[in-house]
Write a structure and sequence with these properties.
Layout: E1 2-5, H1 11-23, E2 29-33, E3 38-41, H2 53-58, E4 62-65, E5 73-75, E6 79-87, H3 96-109, E7 114-117, E8 121-124, E9 127-137, E10 140-148, H4 153-159, E11 167-169, H5 192-206, E12 211-212, H6 217-231, H7 234-239, E13 244-252, E14 255-264, E15 267-275, H8 284-290, H9 297-304, H10 318-323
Parallel strand pairs: 1-2, 1-12, 3-4
Antiparallel strand pairs: 2-6, 3-5, 6-10, 7-8, 8-9, 9-10, 11-13, 13-14, 14-15
Helix pairs in contact: 1-6
């Protein structure tokens, strides 16, 4: 087994590295890695329905879609992530308990009563500190999980807080749980990197054939290609969301504006705008203008800058109008 302590903290790179290990490496792998502040959404989720877009933008939080299912999770440098990639029988499904057992062994060896509960969670005193997900490709299984060690809980809560009334869709929804940091339960003082090393030592003891591995220049090039062409792209992270309907009412100095539209393959469809605002020209022209535009802040703003916006929405700023569409 290749044992990799990845020092990269770019979430686009690290999520790409998971896919690369699954599809381009042939050995079994175990990886430990951390991300700078980011939200990682499940493959089948509506990204915008999982995040507080204003908080995410204001705090420069990257949003990345992973290749596995499950719900959205918040990462920061106080969150340690682990990945197993193993060869298995064709069509095999990962065993969540099997892959999380080494983590439980480490924690229980440190005097923490950690347990596997529900479908895919690890808990301490009934509070979640780890969520897990998997992806199958040919005869290989990828299992990865989060380990909240010393994450900033206020950021976690704020970044994943969203108004559920805005979106109606059939996408997989995240289930919010009471969460805890592992560091709060330690009997010995330890930082996240020392905890990482403790886990790696345990894994290497479990698998006598294991060896440390560093990405080769060819590996780095392959991961960066995936990062640049897929995992850092709006089309993958937002545009690949399932079809959804959006509705929102905003109040401005110029009156209320109510948005109704649906989004398919990342593009706005069937837009309707209502409200008690004043206008010189029919707002139906704006509805037609935005038809087919990606549900992306900059794309919408660029489109509206092609018209004299005040002719359609008197005393309403274009930036607050665009903000109302998220």
């Amino acid at each position: 087994m290749l044992c990799i302590k990845d020092s990269h903290t770019d979430p686009y790179f690290n999520i790409a590295a998971d896919e690369y290990a699954l599809k381009s490496l042939t050995d079994d792998c175990f990886m430990l890695w951390r991300n700078e502040p980011s939200i990682i959404v499940g493959k089948h989720q509506n990204t915008l329905a999982e995040i507080d877009i204003d908080y995410v933008k204001a705090n420069n939080i990257k949003v990345v879609r992973r290749i596995s299912g499950g719900g959205a999770v918040f990462h920061d440098l106080g969150n340690l992530n682990f990945t197993f990639v193993k060869n298995a029988g064709e069509g095999a499904q990962g065993d969540f308990r099997k892959f999380t057992l080494p983590i439980l062994d480490v924690l229980q060896g440190m005097g923490i009563d950690a347990k596997f509960e529900g479908r895919n969670d690890l808990t301490i005193d009934g509070k979640k500190f780890s969520g897990n997900a998997e992806s199958i490709w040919k005869n290989r299984v990828l299992h990865h999980g989060t380990l909240l060690f010393s994450a900033v809980m206020t950021d976690l809560s704020a970044a994943l807080k969203v108004n559920p009334l805005k979106f109606q869709d059939k996408a997989v929804k995240s289930v919010r749980s009471r969460v805890t940091n592992i560091s709060e339960h330690l009997k010995e003082k330890m930082d996240v990197l020392e905890f990482r090393d403790r886990i790696m030592q345990h894994i290497m003891a479990m698998y006598p054939e294991s060896r440390t591995y560093e990405y080769t220049p060819e590996d780095i090039a392959g991961i960066e290609k995936l990062r640049d062409e897929k995992f850092s792209q709006w089309d993958w992270n937002f545009g690949d969301s399932p079809k959804y309907d959006f509705a929102k009412l905003i109040r401005t100095e110029g009156g209320s504006v109510e948005f109704h539209f649906n989004v398919k393959k990342g593009r706005i469809r069937d837009m309707r705008i209502y409200g008690d605002f004043f206008h010189k020209h029919d707002t139906e022209e704006v509805e037609k203008l935005l038809e087919g535009v990606t549900h992306n802040h900059d794309a919408i703003l660029a489109k509206l800058q092609q018209i004299n916006f005040s002719n359609y929405f008197k005393n309403i700023r274009v930036d607050e109008f665009v903000g109302g569409m998220f």
